[in-house]
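Design a sequence for this backbone.
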C-alpha cells in the first residue's frame, strides 16, 4: 500500500479514526486547500485527455466519468480533525478485541486450505494475512461505499494533494481499462482505498494478484485474490519467512528509554546483553538478527522488540500502533 494513513476502524464506528491509525492513504490534516483554477467539468476534460494519451479506451472513460461530480462528504472527511485520540493501550484494546480474535480464528479454520496454498507460494503465514484483512475491513465486512473514481476526482480537483490523488485516479482508470472491475462496482473508502484489503489503486496495480485464475484481479469479492494480494504485498515489501514480527519483552530496571527507537537496531545478542528478555521466556531467534526496541505506550508502558518484518508491515501503514496491532492480532489468531 504505499502512501497510506487512512485505516478505518470498523469496531470504533466507521472512519472516525482515519487520521489516527495511518492503511491506504496518508491524510494530512489542517492544511488549507487552494482554490481550483478551473471549473470541475473543464478539469475533468483535461483528465480525460491525459487518460486518452495513456491509451485508455474511450468507452471505458465515458463510463468511468459518467455523472461524476465532486462529493462534498469526501472533502468533509478529508478536512475532519480527529475529535480525540486513543492511548496505545486503548487502541490495542479496540483493534485487537476478543471478538476480532475469535473471528480471525474461525476464518483460519474456515479458509485453512486456501490460506495454506497462499502461504506456500508467498511464504507469509496465514495469521498475518488474516490480521491485515481483519483490521482493514473487519474480514471484508466494511469495505466502503464511495464511488472510487468520483472520490479520487474530488480529492485531485480540490488541490490540497492534487498530484498524489490525480496519480491515483489515473491508476484507478488503468484498473478499469484492464477489466478487473466495472466503474459502477469500483467502490471503496472516501480516500480511494478499495476492496477487502483496502488497496489504493497504485498498490492494486503493483501487488494485486489473480490467484483464482479467472483473468481478473478481484479484491472486492474473490477471497483467493484478496488473500494472495495481501501476501504478495508483504512478500514484495521485504517479508522474511524465517522470523516473526516481534515480541513483548521485559527490561532491566536501569534501562535507558532513549534506546527505544525504530531507528536504533542492535542484534538480538546485543539486546540480551543489555538485559532485555522475552516476557514469555522464549529465545529471541537468530542471535545476529537485527531488532529494534519500542515503547509505543511511553516509558512506563509495554515494551516490544521488533524485527525487520515489523518494518515491512509499516510499509503497508506507517503507524507503529497499527503495525503492533497487526502483530498482536496475528499472534492471537495463531494461538487458536
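Sequence:
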Amino acid at each position: 500500500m504505499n502512501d497510506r494513513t487512512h485505516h478505518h476502524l470498523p469496531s470504533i464506528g466507521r472512519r472516525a479514526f482515519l487520521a489516527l491509525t495511518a492503511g491506504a492513504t496518508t491524510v494530512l490534516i489542517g492544511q488549507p486547500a487552494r482554490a481550483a483554477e478551473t471549473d470541475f467539468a473543464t478539469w475533468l476534460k483535461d483528465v480525460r485527455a491525459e487518460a486518452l494519451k495513456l491509451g485508455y479506451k474511450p468507452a471505458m472513460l465515458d463510463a468511468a466519468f459518467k455523472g461524476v461530480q465532486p462529493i462534498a462528504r469526501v472533502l468533509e472527511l478529508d478536512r475532519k480533525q480527529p475529535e480525540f485520540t486513543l492511548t496505545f493501550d486503548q487502541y490495542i484494546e479496540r483493534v485487537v478485541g476478543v471478538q476480532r480474535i475469535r473471528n480471525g480464528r474461525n476464518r483460519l479454520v474456515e479458509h485453512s486450505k486456501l490460506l495454506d496454498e497462499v502461504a506456500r507460494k508467498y511464504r507469509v503465514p496465514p495469521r498475518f494475512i488474516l490480521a491485515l484483512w481483519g483490521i482493514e475491513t473487519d474480514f471484508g465486512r466494511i469495505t466502503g461505499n464511495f464511488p472510487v473514481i468520483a472520490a479520487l476526482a474530488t480529492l485531485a480537483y480540490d488541490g490540497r494533494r492534487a498530484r498524489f490523488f490525480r496519480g491515483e485516479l489515473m491508476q484507478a482508470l488503468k484498473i478499469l481499462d484492464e477489466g478487473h472491475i466495472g466503474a459502477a462496482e469500483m467502490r471503496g473508502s472516501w480516500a480511494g482505498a478499495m476492496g477487502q484489503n483496502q488497496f489504493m489503486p497504485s498498490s492494486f496495480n503493483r501487488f494485486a494478484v489473480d490467484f483464482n485464475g479467472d483473468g481478473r484481479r478481484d479484491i472486492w469479492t474473490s477471497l483467493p485474490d484478496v488473500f494472495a494480494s495481501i501476501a504478495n504485498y508483504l512478500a514484495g515489501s521485504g517479508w522474511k519467512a524465517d522470523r516473526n514480527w516481534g515480541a513483548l519483552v521485559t527490561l532491566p530496571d536501569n534501562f535507558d528509554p532513549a534506546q527505544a527507537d525504530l531507528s536504533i537496531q542492535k542484534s538480538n545478542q546485543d539486546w540480551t546483553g543489555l538485559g532485555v528478555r522475552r516476557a514469555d521466556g522464549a529465545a529471541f531467534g537468530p542471535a545476529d538478527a537485527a531488532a529494534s526496541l519500542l515503547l509505543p505506550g511511553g516509558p512506563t508502558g509495554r515494551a516490544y522488540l521488533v524485527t525487520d518484518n515489523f518494518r515491512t508491515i509499516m510499509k503497508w501503514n506507517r503507524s507503529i500502533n497499527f503495525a503492533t496491532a497487526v502483530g498482536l492480532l496475528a499472534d492471537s489468531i495463531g494461538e487458536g
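Residues 162-177 form the longest helix (16 residues).
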